[in-house]
Amino acid sequence: MRNLIVAFILGSSLAMSLFTGEEALRNGDQAWPLWLIVFPLVSLGGLLALLLEHWKKGKRRSDGDEGQSASR
């Protein structure tokens, strides 16, 4: 459940930073690179780390299941 909540938060922050960056770029604001480059990269990095953690956890579970069936 924790991973689902974190993924939702990171996805929402990615969308908000892209929408805010587009508006800043259109209005000529000087902070547009922050909104269109830095914040989306941080959000994508968080989503990637979450995906890797989930993948490793699933791989450990499947390895443990195989070990139990082999010992029976």
Question: Which key features would you list for this structure?
Answer:
2 helices, mainly alpha, transmembrane helix, rod-shaped, transmembrane
Blueprint (SSEs and pairs):
Elements: H1 2-27, H2 32-71
Helix pairs in contact: 1-2
Keywords: Membrane, Transmembrane, Transmembrane helix
Transmembrane segments: 31-52
Helix content: over 70%
Strand content: under 5%
Largest sheet: none
In total, the number of strands is 0
Transmembrane segments: 31-52
Keywords: Membrane, Transmembrane, Transmembrane helix
What features would you describe in this structure?
Keywords: Membrane, Transmembrane, Transmembrane helix. The chain crosses the membrane at residues 31-52. This protein is mainly alpha-helical. The chain contains 2 helices and no strands. The two termini are 32 Å apart. The mean pLDDT is 89.
Summarize, please.
By secondary structure, the protein is mostly helical. It has helices at residues 2-27, 32-71. The protein starts with a helix and ends with a helix.
